[in-house]
Inverse folding.
């Protein structure tokens, strides 16, 4: 039996992608109250708590995407008249790229705008 390396296991994970092309989008989808950092992903895909995947994140002002292993920790079912709020909250569980720090640095630089988030 062959032992699978961490890199091979990550390649085998399903992949998702989010592009946060503006400051407002970043503020809207970042979930700072999740330990280790997290994002809200709008999706109608049937994901469950505990599902893991590799997330490709493209932040405004950055030329390259960042990859982070994530786990679903929060479910938001669709609501009548508010389909954009259907999705999942994901926790960064292997943040080698320091995505949480990148996001928080960008948000600190723009200050608190009072913009509503997708989750609160």
């Amino acid at each position: 039996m062959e032992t699978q390396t961490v890199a091979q296991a990550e390649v085998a994970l399903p992949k998702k992608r989010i592009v946060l092309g503006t400051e407002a989008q970043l503020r809207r989808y970042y979930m700072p109250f999740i330990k280790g950092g997290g994002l809200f992903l709008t999706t109608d895909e049937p994901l469950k708590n505990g599902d893991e995947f590799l997330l490709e994140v493209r932040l405004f002002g950055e030329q390259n995407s960042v990859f982070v292993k994530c786990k679903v920790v929060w479910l938001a079912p669709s609501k009548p008249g508010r389909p954009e709020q259907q999705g999942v909250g994901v926790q960064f569980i292997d943040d080698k790229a320091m995505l949480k720090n990148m996001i928080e640095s960008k948000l600190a630089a723009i200050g608190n705008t009072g913009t509503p988030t997708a989750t609160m």
Remarks:
- The chain has a mean pLDDT of 83.
- The chain has three helices and five strands.
- The longest strand covers residues 66-76.
- The helical segments are 6-12, 23-29, 99-110.
